[in-house]
Amino acid sequence: MGEPSKLMRDFWRGGELFVWMTASGVALSLLMVAGMLGLIMVNGLGQFWPGALQETTLKTQETVIGQVVGEEVIPNSITPDSPAGQRRFRYRVGNRDVFGSEYRWINAADIVSSARPEDLTLVERREWGPAFGRITVGVEGAATGSASGSSWTTVKTLVERANQLRRRIEHLEREEIGSINYRIEKARLARHALTLGGRLDPDDADRDRLLLDQIAVLERDYLAKTEALERLHKDAGQEVLFLTLSTGRSVRLSLDEVLAVSRPNGMHWGEKLLAYVRSLWLFVSTEPREANTEGGIFPAIFGTVLMVFLMTLAVMPFGVMAAVYLREYATQGLLVRLVRIAVNNLAGVPSIVFGVFGLAFFVYALGGTIDHWLFPEALPNPTFGTGGILWASLTLALLTVPVVIVATEEGLSAVPRDFREGSLGLGATKFETLRHVIIPCALPGILTGLILAMARAAGEVAPLMLTGVVKLAPALPLDEYLPFLHLDRKFMHLGFHIYDVGFQSPNVEAAKPMVYMTTLILILVVVSLNWAAVRLRNRLRRRFAASTV
Amino acid sequence: MITERFQLMLKPVHLRTWFDRLARAVITVGGLATIISILGIFFFLFREVTPLFTAPSAKLTQRLSVPALLVDEGPAQVAVDEHREIAQVFTSGAIQFFDLASGQPIPLETPAQVKARQITAMASGGGNAPRLAVGTADGEVLFLKVGTTTEFTDQGERRKRPHIRAGQPIPLTKSPIVRLAYRANDQGSLLALLSKGGRLLVARIAADDVAGHHPIITELPQPRGEVTALALDALLENLYVGTADGQVVHVGLSETEPPEMRAAYTVAASSTAVTTLGFLSGDRSLVVMSGDGAVSTWGLVRRADAPSGWTLTQIHTLRAHNAPVTAFAPSQRVKGFVTGDRKGNLFLHHATSSQTLLRLANSEFPIRAVAFAPKGDGLIALDGAGQLSLYQVQNAYPEVTLETLFGKVWYEGYDQPAHVWQSSSGSDDVEPKLGLLPLAFGTLKGTMYALFLAVPIAILAAMCTSQFMHQDLRAKIKPIIEVMAALPTVVLGFLAGLWLAPLLERMLPAVAGMALVLPLLVVLASFGWYLCPLSVKRHLPQGQEALLLIPLLGLGIAGCLWANSFIEGWWFDGNVKAWLSSRLGIQYDQRNALIVGIVMGFAIVPVIYSIAEEALSNVPKIQIAGSLALGATRWQTVLHLVLLSASPGIFSAVMIGFGRAIGDTMIVLMATGNTPILDWNWANGFRTLSANIAVEIPEAPHGGSLYRVLFLAALLLFIVTFVINSLAELIRQRLRDKYSHG
């Protein structure tokens, strides 16, 4: 008996157990990272794959058409009789407008038969999410579609034609009528500005009349365009689609409701791949629909990029200047050391605090003042006195400037002393040394700081919620009207999009896959930026580690 | 490149030095400005908060003498309009308006039916409407509307017009009316009156009986002492009768039942009479003022032992006057009121915060009537010598004091003092409750749960990679863990709220299983490896244990998830939620502290890890080599040498993790139910300071109490994180210095 107990004692004393315990910390961390990324990727990327449509007949003689999206053991179904428990499937049955809910659980025990007929059609609609069923073509007013002339190609041509028409209508609505509205509003504000001082100045009377004429012309234009729009709507044609649902009911689908039709069961994998890439592209390039739960996320991507870009413009000169001052010009002493620690620690102050500051300082104090002096004609509607992309960018610039300062300082201090002394010894002034010797050497450090700042800014949401992000922006902050970049506009943001769709939307369940995809894009942006910064920093360290020897 | 540099050298020297100086100036100014502006954030936040704590003040802006006609002994009533431009004085003599800009009376005829009668009692209808009831010496009551309407001309100019509208007298009793209380709502009007003979009557006039031809009059039984004060609430259900022997009798009224004497309460020292009764805005708190100058507020509180289930309880005691209180007026905006005494002093009180904000010595004459301006920024008082005094009051945040922010406060409608955060409610009459303690508690709770999970994992991982792991593997794994720190918290919050929370609700047994199975697996693995023959061990060099553990732990987790229903069956009687609530009395919320602990723990693992790793790997290699050479195993070396030397660094790592968890917003916003409750339980939610700011500041009116209290919350977060980070940084620097010199 002595042998095993000695073995145990040695094992305990040697501490190998604890070494393994520490290794479990690493293993758990890695498992969590991998699990999280895997989860997001599967859920995000999986949704664009055209899943097969099942037609399932139940014991109750009911037929269900849908995509199987999940499977589980029914909770509390494990009994002594069936130790494996009962299974059930989660069907996405679509047709939210008819069935009330887009998803449905079906117990495996209830299924009589299940098949994948090729004529099952998936219809993507402008509202109410997808619909599944069998499609036929009919004329307006008919109760059902006629069997003749309902071939699949006819349906596809009709949908294609409707889409072209819709694009024209949208162009007319948004670009042309939108532009007229914009100009009318401008002219109206200009008139208001003329009368702001109380009375209309006689000198301004001519201008006022001119503006009035302009408005009249624009309004005539507007009428003409709306008539053209109505004509286009009439052109939509007589054909309508009829969709026979799983219940046998026939539902009328007006063509301008239908975005796309497809028959995933009849596709081979090449077509599926094509469809996959196409929907992925549509996701990143189109605008959201239905309270952000359908459609794409282009405005959010655009808003994020533009906001980060503006922030970088603000943070770069000031961050670098502050770091250069601290490291190269300020007299090194206790005060500078304290300032350095303070700046360093500002990076750890919660972002919501910066958001609060941005709201009070930029939006209310600065924005309110700007409105008062520069945009009195629009008051009481605020122009800059409310959240906007400029204030959001500046708030994030404040939040990230410590990151830039710290990284730049690190870069500057890594430049070997010999370089400076050499340059100064050859007669260069301090600024020349800085410009031609030190900054180029420290450039990787500066860039590291900038990239880290961009990554941090791209992922922050809390401060933006207070300074100008919205769930749905009516217009991009960048467009073709002077002055092109509208700094006062509100914008959409990937991170806020996740929060909003995941937590404030009326149909969270249907929007979930979209949020996963948005999440994946955000993570890709942030992690790749960070990765680049880490690589750059390591290169910098190695380079100077070699050169100082 | 070379030619360019060469050309540079050819520039004239004075131009170069000038340029150098310019650059120095630009960089100095720009750098300093940047640093000052980012450090200025603190001062700006501070400046936004300070108005909360500035002492209230009042300034006498005007004093005028009213005509002799208005100076008499009878009841009086004063008011001022919201812009403080027109004052009104109503005594038994007449009704008179004054233009405050000129100080001159505004000529306006007092209606004949008022002029012809001797007014012996007055009562305001409560609320913001200028409704009054007056009782006459003939036992009649008249309803009046006396006030100022504001009109705007086409040019946008503001015009004020005083008006008096009087109804016809309604005879209610034969003898003079001495005291009167009056309230009206959409069901009708209710009057309580005391006639000269000591009869106590209640008269109800239905809403459709506009002229008051059919009042329903009920006589109440005589209370024990002489009746000295009456107060009616806006529900038209409660009448309070103050008596000369210091009692308040609560009478329940209803449209259908006869009046019911509910209970009598002693509210003042027995020899002192109740001089005045009144309500705070909202008519829920009764203010009792007695002959010795005492001022207190009372409210109906639920008590099981009381016959009606409710008893009138003293809630707040305010600073007492030195003389009997003669005048009272509630603020129309907050739970504040003003009292005036016989010696001419005015006290400004705020009930909820139990404080007397201001004491003003108006004159040596008794205060006959007093009123707040509608916005609470002004006071008007009429004294016994016929002087009308107007004060400008600066008292924007009476409800916010350090005690109300962090202490227990007895709010209206509560049965006891409590810590409550409830910034808004459906009704205007319900005061905002701005107790920061539940939020600070929530912040701490979330942080603690996160640290509880993150600290062991992060420090174990840091020990492993810095001491035991193979260098090549370390170079790969360290950046992976560190990149986790960059993950946006909104992503983690989303996963926590929409993936983990529903999952954990179903998989709770599996998680409980994991807590048992995973450590067991590690022990078994290490022992198995220990027993392995060398020939097997050779294939995996030392320092790669983590690689072996990843699939093992992965399998363990998967196994637990698979076995979820079995574990639920064995341990938790087949239903974990029912088991929790019946055995442990725990109500499981879907979004709870456990979720936040896991996800926020995940977020701060890399933060703690990377600093602890740095501290651990900075321990000089030569010391470690010495220890190993002396025969210590690698674990013994780490435990007794490395861990000890690096302990300050590890401490600072935990502190920085703490700072990060405190300020996090998105995770707690999305993964907790955001319910501001005080409970350490892991199975329910909470609300943190940061999430609270994010939720409430978009709705907070700029410059209001809520807005500034949220700024205070932000300032607190700023200070706490800044101090913690600075301490951690100091510790780290000292450690670094120690090893760089040693």
UniProtKB/TrEMBL annotation, chain A:
A Gene Ontology BP annotation from the UniProt entry: phosphate ion transmembrane transport
All residue ranges annotated as the ABC transmembrane type-1 domain in the record: 301-533
Bilayer disposition of the protein: Multi-pass membrane protein
Record-annotated membrane-spanning stretches: 17-42, 297-326, 346-367, 387-407, 437-458, 514-534
GO MF annotation, one: phosphate transmembrane transporter activity
CDD domains: TM_PBP2
Subcellular location: Cell membrane
InterPro entries linked: MetI-like, MetI-like_sf, Phosphate_PstA
Protein keywords: Cell membrane, Membrane, Transmembrane, Transmembrane helix, Transport
Chief subcellular location: membrane
One GO term describing the cellular component: plasma membrane
The family this protein is said to belong to: Belongs to the binding-protein-dependent transport system permease family. CysTW subfamily.
Name the record gives this protein: Phosphate transport system permease protein PstA
Native organism: Nitrospira defluvii
Gene: pstA
From TrEMBL, chain B:
SMART domains xrefs: WD40
Its membrane topology: Multi-pass membrane protein
Boundaries of every ABC transmembrane type-1 domain copy: 440-728
Annotated CDD domains: TM_PBP2
A GO cellular component annotation in the UniProt record: plasma membrane
Entries under InterPro entries matching the protein: MetI-like, MetI-like_sf, WD40/YVTN_repeat-like_dom_sf, WD40_repeat_dom_sf, WD40_rpt
Pfam families assigned to the protein according to its UniProt record, in alphabetical order: BPD_transp_1
Keyword Transmembrane helix recorded: yes
S-adenosyl-L-methionine recorded as keyword: no
GO BP terms, alphabetized: transmembrane transport
Subcellular location: Cell membrane
Transmembrane segments: 21-46, 448-468, 480-501, 507-534, 546-572, 592-612, 638-662, 706-728
Superkingdom per UniProt: Bacteria
Keywords: Membrane, Transmembrane, Transmembrane helix, Transport
Chief localisation class: membrane
Stated family: Belongs to the binding-protein-dependent transport system permease family.
UniProt protein name: Putative Phosphate ABC transporter, permease protein with WD40-like region (Modular protein)
